[in-house]
Write a structure and sequence with these properties.
The chain is 26% helix and 28% strand. The protein is an alpha/beta fold.
């Protein structure tokens, strides 16, 4: 049985008619096994990345799970990671936001990103980090009107002001 080596070390993306085709939610990846002989084809689905340090973010994550969308939780602390594991979140990425260059690229393709703002500096770090992982839209959910231009300048595509943080209306655009 071959062990997964991550998305970064893929050899090529499926080519059709001599051109690389960007599929909206799936990539077909060919990898070489440990001996360098033979290949294994694996299908990867782009996952929704959610940073949910707020109560509204936790509720949104539960709703996404109920709907059945694949998602990955993003956190920067061990305590939050343990809380996410206790909430039965299957995939979690824990990053070091103190040293920006120290975080590696995830082993799976990242699709849309939803960031619930808890603090301005943390949200800014998440935007910088996530922008290097995906070209898909980054949504920032905030209860403050002021940092909108800061977030957009760092690479957020949409900054949504919400007093209660309820953004379930976004789900149809994330599928």
């Amino acid at each position: 049985m071959l062990e997964s080596r991550g998305f970064r070390d893929c050899i090529f993306i499926l080519f059709l008619y001599g051109a690389c085709v960007s599929l909206p939610h799936f990539y077909k990846v060919r990898r070489y096994n440990e001996s360098g002989k033979g290949t294994v084809n694996v299908m990867y689905s782009e996952a929704l990345l959610i940073a949910a340090p707020t109560k509204a973010g936790e509720e949104f994550m539960k709703y996404v799970s109920l709907v059945g969308l694949p998602f990955i939780a993003l956190t920067n602390s061990k305590a939050d990671r343990l809380q996410l594991e206790a909430a039965d979140v299957k995939q979690i990425i824990q990053v070091n936001t103190w040293k920006m260059g120290s975080s590696s690229i995830p082993d799976y393709p990242i699709g849309n990103v939803i960031l619930f703002e808890d603090s301005l500096p943390l949200c800014c770090r998440y935007i910088q980090l996530c922008r290097s992982w995906t070209s898909r839209p980054i949504y920032v959910i905030t209860q403050s009107v002021n940092p909108r231009l800061i977030y957009k300048g760092l690479g957020a595509d949409y900054v949504i002001y919400s007093k209660n943080g309820d953004v379930k209306f976004l789900l149809p655009s994330l599928k």
